[in-house]
């Protein structure tokens, strides 16, 4: 009897595995899912956890043992897509940037897109003209510290922030100049979040 119970318990464990998804704010969401669960099931769990309704811009990415990145296919079994053994670790990321961020209806969607832009700039994955990079960095600065205040923001205040893998002092000055003279909350045409958003 005991052996049958143990055998049943082992079979049950074999049908489940742990999965950790790193979110855009660097927090983690961990769950246990069935071995035959498809990607859509995991994605829906994450969206429910985040109360994310505008799902179409997002996806789940994983890295295989050869360090190659892949998007999880929602119509296929998770276990069959992963080339490693559980527990699995994946990341929620923006898969498609919205063409007009202002049209996004949900604040959480705008916040997650903001975090992705910030991440992609920092890692050098968002290729754009220097003028556009300076503007994006100024918006990020705006979201982090709010409006420019000479009493709070002394000379060189923007140097405390790392927006790119590397950048020149000239670009840094341009970022501060845009923040000082061109940006006044409530926010930008890009729909970036306000300083009251969670960090």
UniProtKB/TrEMBL annotation:
What GO molecular function annotation could you give as one example from this UniProt entry? Answer: cytoskeletal protein binding
For the biological process aspect of GO, one term held by this record is:
actomyosin structure organization
Which top-level group of life is the source organism from?
A: Eukaryota
Task: Using the record, list the residue span of the signal peptide; answer none if the entry has no such feature.
Answer: none
Please give the GO cellular component terms listed in this UniProt entry: cytoskeleton
Residues forming the FERM domain are: 17-199
Q: Which Pfam families did the record assign? A: FERM_M (PF00373), FERM_N (PF09379)
* The protein's name in its UniProt record: FERM domain containing 5b
- The gene behind this protein is FRMD5
């Amino acid at each position: 009897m005991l052996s049958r119970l143990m055998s049943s318990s082992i079979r049950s464990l074999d049908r489940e595995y742990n999965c950790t998804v790193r979110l855009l704010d660097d927090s983690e969401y961990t769950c246990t899912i069935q071995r035959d669960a498809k990607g859509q099931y995991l994605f829906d769990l994450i969206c429910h956890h985040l109360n994310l309704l505008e799902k179409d811009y997002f996806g789940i990415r994983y890295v295989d043992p050869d360090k190659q990145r892949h998007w999880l296919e929602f119509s296929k079994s998770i276990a069959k897509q992963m080339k490693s053994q559980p527990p699995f670790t994946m990341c929620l990321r923006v898969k498609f940037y919205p063409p007009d961020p202002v049209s996004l209806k949900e604040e959480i969607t705008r916040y997650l897109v903001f975090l992705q832009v910030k991440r992609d700039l920092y890692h050098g994955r968002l290729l754009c003209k220097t003028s556009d990079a300076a503007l994006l960095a100024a918006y990020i600065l705006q979201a982090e510290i709010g409006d420019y205040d000479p009493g709070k923001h002394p000379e060189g205040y923007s140097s405390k922030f790392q927006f790119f893998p590397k950048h020149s002092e000239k670009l840094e000055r341009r970022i501060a100049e845009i923040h000082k003279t061109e940006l006044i909350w409530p926010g930008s045409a890009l729909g970036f979040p306000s300083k009251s958003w969670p960090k």
